[in-house]
Design goal:
With 64 residues, the protein is an alpha+beta fold. It is built from 3 helices and 3 strands.
């Protein structure tokens, strides 16, 4: 899927940005602007960029 910069800006405005882990309306772990553990693309990104770190872990939050 391709998303233009204008499309990305619209998604951010509509969804908002949450800087910490939370459960969304259906109970999936979510962070930022729509990054959800229910997404295969996000799971792949997390595994490649946060090896050994649990999604939503306190250690990740404290590293910021």
């Amino acid at each position: 899927m391709d998303l233009s910069p204008a499309g990305a800006a619209l998604v951010r405005v509509e969804e908002g940005f949450v800087p910490h882990w939370y459960k969304d309306a259906v109970g999936d772990g979510t962070i930022g602007v729509g990054f959800t553990w229910a997404s295969a693309a996000f799971c792949k990104w997390w595994a490649e960029n946060k090896p050994g770190m649990a999604f939503g872990s306190r250690r990740d939050h404290d590293a910021r």
